[in-house]
Amino acid sequence: MTAVRRPVIAIVGGGFTGAVVAANLARHAASDGAAIVVFEPRDRLGAGLAYDSGNPAHRTNVPAARMSLVPDDPDDFLNWLAAHGEPRGDPDARAADGHLYVRRAVFGRYVGAFVAPFVRSGKVVHRRERIARIERRGARWKLTSDAGTELLADIVVIATTHPSPCAPKRVAQALEGHPRFVADTTVAGSLTCLRPDDHVLVLGNGLTAADVIASLRLADHRGSIVALSRRGLRSRGHAGRAQEPFGDFVGTPARTALELLRRVRLAVRQAALAGLSWHAVFDALRSQGGQVWRALPVAERRRLVQRLRPFWDAHRFRVAPQIDDAIRQAIETGQLRVLGASIEGVERYGQVIAVDIRHRQTRIRERLLFDACVVTTGPAHTGVLSSQDWLADLASKGWLRLDSVGLGLACDEASRAIGTSGVAERSLIVAGPLARGTFGELMGLPQVNDHAIFIADEIAEMLARPDRAATSRRSASSVRQRLVTTLDGAARR
Q1: Which of 377, 115, 331, 76 has the alpha carbon at shortest distance from 225?
Q2: Is 192 exposed, middle or buried (0-12, 13-18, 19+ CB in 10 A)?
Q3: What is the pLDDT of residues 146-195, one digit of tens each?
């Protein structure tokens, strides 16, 4: 009698996405008998780059009441917090609006607790190792870790994060070796080189820049800070009161980036007449984002990314009220300047950094002097294939390629990787933010959580029907649809 071979699913990356995929797959009856192996060098699953921070200034940007991992139980995270006495030692966790914005490490522990029972039972195996190489072996994949572990897998899930930020070339060249040039804030303790009275240049105005400024304020930094980006758009805060999402962008979806922009502006004006802020419109746009994105031709997706993404990011990815307050106070006291300008030159005079800028609005040139420079320009999306050797090797063999809009890896509607042949490989799956080129909005909760559940469902279907090619029965954005208010005041999902 021939023994039935146990199917093996390898998940590369055990941060938020990898852990949630593993936990939801382990809950499926279809995964009984399958081996689920997660390669993640950190001691525990679920934290990853986003939620592994011990910095007390780093908070979730979404209220705790909206961060449940269980779609059918929106209070799951709140209940977990209550059961574990959290947030402890954090008197500032509750904002003035009454919502909890916990430290990111707390949410990381919640995600870890979500997957932990499956690790303890052995249904999910956590290998604290980095992947060094992935090779095709017949119909399977051979994974080799940096510790020499080898594993043959039937399905591989790429759940790694974006590559680190990339400083502008002229800045990197001029400041190479400078003792207070922080090129990557994701490195633990990266800001400890900054002195209390340093004049600091922060390159970027997004969420990471907000974290840096809040961290410096919490550490009683006294020196001046300039946050510089081409448009000078800093991440916005949350609405002062609860609002239902407002706007319908999918009934008759826009076919061009310009048409979408016009419709958003119209919705903002109509929301104001209804007594709502722009936040309600962007909440509706976010919840419908996957459908809006897929309705746009590829050329219009590129135009959206190139022309409008900074505006989207500034309104979509909002900072916690505590961080917003810290930034506002820094601006009001004159400690912080938020500038929209381009860099025309960088020079060093010993340890003094001289930066020549041209202001966006006035076109006036100005020379600014700094003691330190911190890069917060966001992930280097186009460098994802060169960020890790095994990704580069898979790309060289034709299994992976960049998506057509420059946000991550190419994949189809079932999140299966598309290589140079243009054909999707059903056993190589892209999970999380690296699939943004196909799915659109995959950077914040609940969209990343929904996508992870979608991936687990797809794999479960493959395990249940191993001889049948996987088909996308639904889009990731349809996992959870929220009630929104349309322009005519009607409600729809």
Answers
A1: 331
A2: exposed
A3: 999 999 999 999 999 888 788 888 999 999 999 999 999 988 899 999 99
Instruction: Choose among 69, 62, 104: nearest CA to 86.
Output: 104
How many Cβ atoms are within 10 Å of 395's Cβ, its own excluded? 18
Q: Enumerate helices (H) and strands (E) in the chain, giving the number of each.
A: 14, 18
> Which residue in 464, 387, 368 sits closest to 131, CA to CA?
387
Q: Which amino acid is at 319?
A: V
Residue type, 438: T
How far is Cα 36 from Cα 456, in angstroms, rounded to an integer? 11
Burial of 354 (0-12, 13-18, 19+ CB in 10 A): middle
* Angle at alpha carbon of residue 158, lines to 152 and 164, rounded to 5°: 130
Preceding omega of 87 cis (within 30 degrees of 0)? yes
CA dihedral 459, 302, 286, 447 (to 10 degrees): 20
CB 417 within 8 A of CB 411: yes
Q: Model pTM?
A: 0.90
H-type alpha helices, 246-308: 257-273, 278-287, 289-295, 298-303
- Residues contacting 82, CB < 8 A, separation 6+: none
Rounded CA separation 345/297 (Å): 38
Residues 6 or more apart whose Cβ sits within 8 Å of residue 184: 164, 165, 190, 375
Task: Give the integer Cα–Cα distance in Å for 240 and 473.
Answer: 39
Rounded mean pLDDT of 428-453?
Answer: 88
Q: What is the CA radius of gyration of the chain?
A: 23
The residue written with tokens 């009441």 in the block is 65
Sign of CA dihedral 457, 461, 466, 469: negative
